[in-house]
Amino acid sequence: MPAIFPGKIAVTDRIRIDKWLWQARFFKTRSLAAKIVASGRVRVNSQPIAKPAHAVGPDDVLTFPQAHEIRVVRVIAPGERRGPASEARLLYDDLDPPRPKSEREPQPHVPKYERGGRPTKKDRRALDQSRREALEE
């Protein structure tokens, strides 16, 4: 049973933010989660934090970058361990779910060639010819 002090939250109701982000499977390693927090790009209840030891608990709202998205989640539970993804999903409520890949910013167009990779000299000549024809019109 957790130790409860008068007027204080139970000791086990709060957890380090880097550990929680790792347990909730937002980051692959705890050191990567600590690095993101230490960079100052994480907010807890709209307040920027820069210490990985900052404690979070139920009902805290976290805003942080993950890959090329900004995630906004509400902490539901501190968690006991880094378990499977289905267990990790129970630790938070996603307030702004990530957009599907089809709705994200379009990737720059990369021409595809028959054999893949870099164009051959023949492909390059054909590309130059089509550009010349487009300019002449």
From TrEMBL:
The keyword RNA-binding applies. The keyword Zinc-finger does not apply. Keywords: RNA-binding, Stress response. Residues 85-117, 125-137 have a biased composition (Basic and acidic residues). SUPFAM superfamilies: Alpha-L RNA-binding motif. This is Ribosome-associated heat shock protein Hsp15. Transmembrane segments: none annotated. PROSITE patterns: S4 (PS50889). It holds the Pfam family S4. Residues 85-137 are annotated as: Disordered. InterPro entries: S4_RNA-bd (IPR002942), S4_RNA-bd_sf (IPR036986). One of its GO terms (molecular function) is RNA binding. Residues 15-80 form the RNA-binding S4 domain.
